[in-house]
Structure formats: C-alpha cells, structure tokens
Amino acid sequence: MMDGMAREETRTTTFTPAAVSAAGEPRRPATRAWTTRLLVLGIVLSALNLRPAITSLGALLEEVRDGLGMSGSVAGLLTSVPPLCFAVFGVTAPRLARRFGPGAVVCAGMVAITAGLLIRPYAGGTAGFLAASALALMGIAVSNVLMPVIVKRWFPDRVGSMTGLYSMALALGTAAAAAVTVPMTEALGGSWQSGLTVWAALAAAAVLPWIPFVRQRGAVPAEQPAGRQEHARVEAPALRITRSRTAWALAVFFGLQATAAYVTMGWMAQIFRDAGVPAGTAGLLLAVTMVMGVPLAFVIPRVAARLPHQGPIVIALGACGLAGYAGLYLAPAAGAWAWALLLGVANCAFPLALTMVGMRARTGAGVAQLSAFAQSTGYLISVPGPLLVGVLYQHSGGWGLPIALMAALMVPQMVVGVLAGRNRTVEDEAVR
Q1: Measured between alpha carbons, how far is residue 31 from residues 14, 25, 37, 285, 311 in Å?
Q2: What is the SS3 string spanning 69-127?
Q3: Most exposed residue of 126, 146, 342, 362, measured as fewest CB within 10 angstroms of its CB?
Q4: Which residues neighbour 395 within 8 Å (Cβ) at sequence distance 6 or greater?
Q5: Average pLDDT of the chain to the nearest whole number
C-alpha cells in the first residue's frame, strides 16, 4: 500500500518543471519516492502509538487501581486525563509547527510518548502515575492535531485515502493494545507494570522515521517541487475560527464522540468483568470494539470525502451506538459480542471527524486552525464524561445510570454531526 502511494506521489511530481534538470532528465525521482515512503511509514507508526497508552491502561485498570490504591472516583479521574491533556496541549500544536516544523513536533511527540510509558509504571503512587501519563499524552495531543495538517500539506489531492490510512493504523494500535495487554502481562510474570511498559518499544520505533524531517521548518520535503512547497507552507493564522458555526459544530461533535470513545476505552472492559465475563475475555471484547475501526477507519474517510454532506454517515454511526448501549444495559454478558461490534462501529465517528476537519477548510492554515480548535475544544468538552461515569458507577453501585448517560449523549452527537457535515468551509464563515 505504501509503495503504491509513493508511486502515485512520484507520478504527480516527476514531470513538473522543478523536477526536471537542465539536461531534460528527471531530477532525483528515487530520492522523492524514498522520502514519500519514509513519510508514509512515519504517519503509520505514529498513528499506531496514538492510543495504546490509553487502551492498555483500560485493560489493566482493575490491577492498576489495586496496585495504587485508587477509588472508583480517582479511577474516573484517571480516565479523564487523556481528553484533558489533549485539550490543553493540542492547542499549542499549530504554533509549535510554525516555529519548528510539523515533522520536528511529531518526532518530539513520539519521544514524549516513549518517555511517559517508560516512567509511569514505576513513578511511585497515583500522583507520579498521573504525571508520567500526562507526559505521554502531551506527545499524543500534538500528534493528534498535526496528523490532519501533515496529510493536507503533503497529500492535498488524497485527503480521504491518507486520512483513512492513518485512521486505520490508529484503530489497529488501539485494538492491539486492548487485545494483547492482558495475555502479554501474564506472559511477563503477571506484573501490570511490565504489561504497561512494553508499549514504550512501539513508541520508540515511531521516532526514527521522523528524524530526517526534524530540520525541515516547512511542511513538505525539500525534494518536492517548489510549487508544492509553496502550497504546503504553514501559513500564519488568518481566521477568527470562533466565528464559524461549522467549527463549533465540529468541535462539539468531536467532543461527544471523544466522550463515548474514552468511556469505552476506560470502562467497557470493567463493565463486562462486572457482568461476570472473565478478564481475558473482557479484554478481547474491548479489542473487538477497537478492531472494528481498522477496516472502517479506512473505508469511511474515503466514502465521506466523496460525499458533499456527511450527515447520513453520522446518523448511521449514531444508530449503531444507541443499539449497542441498549444491549449493554439489558444483557451485557449474554449479547456481549454483539454489543462490542455495534459500539465499535459507533466509535468510527472519530475517523469521520478527522476527515471533516480536512474537508471543512480550503487552505493548509485553515486546516491547522480548525484541527487545533475542534480537537482542543472537543477534548475539553469530553473531560467530564469518564469522570462522571466513574462517580455514577461508584455511587449507584451499578452500570445502569452510566450507560443511560452515554445513550442520551448520542442524540446531540448526531445533531451536531449533521451540522458539521454540511458542504461549507470555515474560510467562508470566519474570515478576518
């Protein structure tokens, strides 16, 4: 797949004037192809690392709670840390990208993820665990925001397919962490510290492809034609993004789908375990929910990019979510596999939101601003959700109220998703 994309990129650039030498021969096509392959590899490896820090913890949440002496409310706070960090640190990503270049920022983000995952199991106590988790989540936050920006800059004519590729890789990393963390922990001697630490190796591997891009302040490789470099340069902000109704609709949609996603990643395995499902099977059910995003995260952005209005996809995903929550409320153990599948489909609102970020702005600067605003505001909106679920669970003694809350939130998610999916751009609504 990466070779095919590289060949397509080479075809689009080889015969431009900037790519032809004075003798009339193509100039360094092999170097451009190599750079494109390396870039695609970096995008894929980075996407693989954007969720294991969270879903590996969800699979071992009970063991971590016991090991650190956490109450249900504190565990709910722990599951709220990811969206809080994404909101706080994600907003800084465009400014960092303008100063250091997107490649350098993503590279630094992968280093932060590696360090955080190495430190947090052995930080000692809940406070140290939270601080080290925040370090890893800071790296995830800036990479979250810059992935749509990098795709828009480097692959402006293939936003749907490239968004699908990294969304698929993100879903694969999410599912893999959920599926193998428990058995891998058992294979490593049953220590939850070892089970969490091992994911640092994957993050370390993601650092390497970005090293050649660290010194490139612009958004494209130096080997690309000058015209594409000019098109892809990270421009200064030119929009009052808060004036755009589309931006606000997309931010709220992003926030509500993130609420559902982080409640799922943080609590769904525990819901199944409390219903009598063995720990290993509960981890597999969470993995099934996450792995549904692997094929759908590649298909949905490609379909969405071809539609003028993404509202019908929003409605279909929301209906699956409502059905999944109803089943989880009525028969959590008896229909566990069906509910896991339905909620997995509903969670594909995330790649749809990322695709709409790329489609709701015409320029690279617009995508950078919209991505930072929608993700930071959206994640801020999602912060109370996992915490509230933990509080409701602890004080009600069951999962009925938390599940009812999640089902209720699916309705406004569908409404704002339809509004965000309208065929318009933020430049039309938020020009200075």
Answers
A1: 11, 14, 10, 44, 42
A2: CCCHHHHHHHHHHHHHHHHHHHCCHHHHHHHHCHHHHHHHHHHHHHHHHHHHHHCCHHH
A3: 362
A4: none
A5: 81
pLDDT tens-digit map of 160-176:
788 888 888 888 888 78
Residues counted in the chain: 432
> What is the token pair recorded at 276?
């009598």
Residue type, 166: Y
Looking at residue 24, the DSSP 8-state letter turns out to be S
The whole-angstrom separation of Cα 129 and Cα 137 is 12
Q: Which amino acid is at 164?
A: G
Strand partners, 239: 431
Q: Which of 20-34, 214-228, 288-302 has maximum average pLDDT?
A: 288-302
Sign of the CA dihedral running 144, 83, 290, 198: positive
* Selection from 302, 228, 323 nearest residue 18 by Cα: 228
- Cβ of 100: how many Cβ atoms within 10 Å? 16
pTM comes to 0.72
> Tokens 């090293």 sit at which residue?
211
Structure tokens belonging to residue 50: 């954007």
Among 256, 325, 264, which residue's Cα sits nearest to residue 293? 264
Residue 143, token pair as written in the block = 């990479």
Instruction: Kindly tell me if the per-residue pLDDT of 228 is higher than 60.
Output: no
d(CA 108, CA 184): 28
